[in-house]
Known about the structure:
Chain A: This is ABC transporter permease. The complex is a heterodimer. By secondary structure, chain A is mostly helical.
Amino acid sequence: MNFSERFAIINSGLAILGRFSRSQPRFFLIMIGGAWGVLYEMLHPSAWRRTVLIEFRRNLRQLVGSGFFSVVVVAFITGLGLVSQAVYWLGFAGMSQMTGSLLSSVLLREIAPILVGVILLGRSGMLMLTEMGNLTTGGRLKTLSGMGIDPFLAFVVPRTIATTVSGITLGTLFSVIALAMGYVACWMKGIVTVSIWSFIFEVINSMQLVDYVGIPLKFLLSGASVGLCCCLSGMDVTSEDNLTTFLPRGFSRGIMSILVINVLVDIVLGSF
Amino acid sequence: MPEKTTLSESGYGFVLKLDDAIPVSDSTGLPPVRYNLSIEPGECVFVECRDDVRAAQFTDFCAGLLPVKKEEEANGKQGSVSCMGLNWAELDERRAQALRGRIGRITGDSGWIDLYEMHLNILWPSLHHSRTPYDKLVAEAVHLSQLFGLPGLPTQLPEKLSPLDRKRSEYVRAFMNRPSLLLLENPVSLGAPVELYNAFFTELTVARERGCAVLWIGSERSAWAGYARPGMQRFRLGGNGLIK
Lengths: 272, 244
């Protein structure tokens, strides 16, 4: 093997390595750029045109309306399962004074944002992904650009803000229902004897200042990441893609973004 | 000094001007040659093009969506595409979009957004680009819909309408909000009712009398035969670019 053949092999090897390295953070960088774009646009009053408001309202209705019953049912099951079990076993072990701190640190801080994010992703995010994917492959976004309508402003901005708002709305609902259901289950079994106000006081009392920032922030950012990830994944499809290729890709990106956001907030706020 | 935000029709010579502009395009689309074309307010220019992809790229080029080749790549004079006196290449994205809002378009694929009902599809560009009250826009859309033979503003999803009603809706959308330039890709297909095309020609004339310039690009010369008058510019768009 002479020098030029060796050079060609090394060159192609490096090209494969470079392609792989570039492709991995590509979508992550798109997400960062998209997030900055949404933030930049939403602060401009001129961005809030009637078309953007119509799209925002339509999506908020869809997100909260379709996610409401799912959140209620999941919160009901979580309340019955997790809260009542925690209260029962902590009482059994003689550690019932830790009930509040355990619920605030496990349920409210860790489980609720992830479950709400997953519900948003499954109920509405996948729909957004399909819609955006179809608009992209059908050339509709290009037609909109031809009419002077920026698809990012008309679709990505209102949808991301709508998922952000619905994230905190559904997250708050989830937390309240899960805690209330847990209390009701334990009260009916006679495991807890304190009033619901004392129970909630115990949970609130065990929360630290950082939780009052971290928990709403997680709900907000989980929602935002679902909306942004699904819209950008939908706009990122190529003519070679179809439902069987871009749906699983969008779903895995969505799940990943929810988990990354939750871990990042924990690290930044020092509660990891 | 306050910034001038409106353009009067007397403020610019040509509504659309392609001045030695070479598009940045691949070999499958618009030929990368020099294009020269000027359309004055109220003028109607016909371009015959049998390739739909090429026709779509040409209208995109006129609307500033396809960039012009830079001077160093063009080997000589820097070409430009201007709309209402404004060079697309010199406008930032927000201004370029606002200027595109002054263009009424009929495209080959119609571009209906299936998520919205037809009335929203029709009103969408006007709602986005203007501050005209919603009721006023609806009244204008209803008036145009009736002119083109619809009973009123259609409220079904685009897929639920017949192809003919979709064509009518396309005309309504193109003429909404008093455009300054109309870019029409194959607006007339032979075989549709004569009344529809009579209404289209009438509305086209009204728009031109108002000062709106028209670029009509079609695959069939016979489609504009009933409308063309002596003195109107006619071109052919082929592999060598625009030929008079």
